[in-house]
Amino acid sequence: MSSRQKVWLITDRLKGTSSGFGEALVKILLARGDRVVASARNLSKIQHFSSHPDSHSNLRLLQLDILSPEDTLKAAVATAVGFWGHIDALVNNAGSGQKGILEETGTSELLSQFRTNLFAPIEMTLAVLPYMRARRSGTIVMIGSRSSWKPEQSGIGMYASSKAALRTYSETLAHEIAPFSIRMLIAEPAAFRTNTFNNSPYFVDRTISDYDEIRAKSQDWYSLMHKTIKGDPVKAMEVIADVVRGEGKAAGKPWPLYLPLGDLAVSGITDKCNTMLTTVEEWKDVSSGLDMDIL
């Protein structure tokens, strides 16, 4: 293996690494000469990767359900490490986009969303970190979402809040693993042509009449969304590969903890930061001076 060749473990939930971001990234990395462990619950979903010219020497397929118990995940990671002796980069590409009005969904659906979008990536990361710490080297990539910065869209609250939690967890973890030369990358894409939301029905099991109009508009918006999305998942994953490998568009740039992907991600995050700065300035006379008086 050349000094620049990296070993990647890529996870997913919906169809394994066989659709959207996952498939795009696998093909990009193989084309660049890297080694890839592609995972799926059902290996038949990713067998077609074996037709890639570099698949014989640089691709391994791993059966993995990220919602499996901790011991099962650890065993799967050990298998992945065993292919080439280490993992340079873990890409937590798992995610599902459950949709619904928050008061109607309650906490049971929210817990399900957090299980997939927050706890599963955390558990995968915790299974990989011991191997990276031992080598004092590695990269963790968390696929977040622009919606965690701009969640003002009815129906997106469960998904957006799970991705916001993933970001804040990753921020602290990045600080804690930095002494071991392990890097964290929080990629936050806007809307791209993936199946994140298409594969999850809108929650209507417990409807509240007051929300009928809001829900209907939200359902209409989601039904039309996929037809109007302009984000190209291949271009987004090219950027991920550039950043982790330190080449292409990322050549010569310092390592970023945050990586907005897409024009709407850039504008949405900028708007939220500007809103917070304006709020702090307008309210600082109220917010400040709250320390205990010195006796």
Key traits:
295 residues, alpha/beta, Rossmann fold, seven-stranded parallel sheet, 48% helix, globular, oxidoreductase activity, NAD(P)-bd_dom_sf
How would you describe this structure to a colleague?
This protein has 295 residues and is an alpha/beta fold. It has a single domain (7-278), classed as Rossmann fold. Helix content is 48%, strand content 13%. A 7-stranded parallel beta sheet has the order 3-2-1-4-5-6-7, sandwiched between helices. The longest helix is centred in the middle third of the chain and has 34 residues, at 102-135.
H and E string = EHEHEHEHEHEHHEH
CATH classification, class level? Alpha Beta
Which class best fits the helix and strand makeup? alpha/beta
The CATH homologous superfamily is termed NAD(P)-binding Rossmann-like Domain
Percent of residues in helices comes to 40-55%
Shape: globular
Rg on CA atoms, Å: 20 Å
Keywords: Oxidoreductase
GO molecular function, one term: oxidoreductase activity
InterPro entries: NAD(P)-bd_dom_sf, SDR_fam, SDR_oxidoreductase
Protein name: NAD(P)-binding protein
Secondary structure topology:
Blueprint lengths: L6 E5 L8 H12 L3 E6 L14 H4 E5 L6 H15 L4 E4 L9 H34 L2 E6 L13 H21 L4 E8 L22 H17 L4 H13 L12 E4 L1 H25 L8
Parallel strand pairs: 1-2, 1-4, 2-3, 4-5, 5-6, 6-7
